[in-house]
Amino acid sequence: MSHLLIAYLAYFLAVASPGPSTLAILGTAMASGRRPALALASGVVSGSLIWAGLTALGMGALLLSLVQLIWLLKLAGGLYLMYLAWKSLRSASCPPPAAGRGQSPAAAYRRGLLLHLTNPKAILGWAATFALGLPEGAGGAEMAALFAGCAAIGICVNFGYAWGFSQGAVARTYLRARRWIERSLAAVFAAAGLHLILSRG
Question: Is the pTM of this model over 0.70?
Answer without folding.
Answer: yes
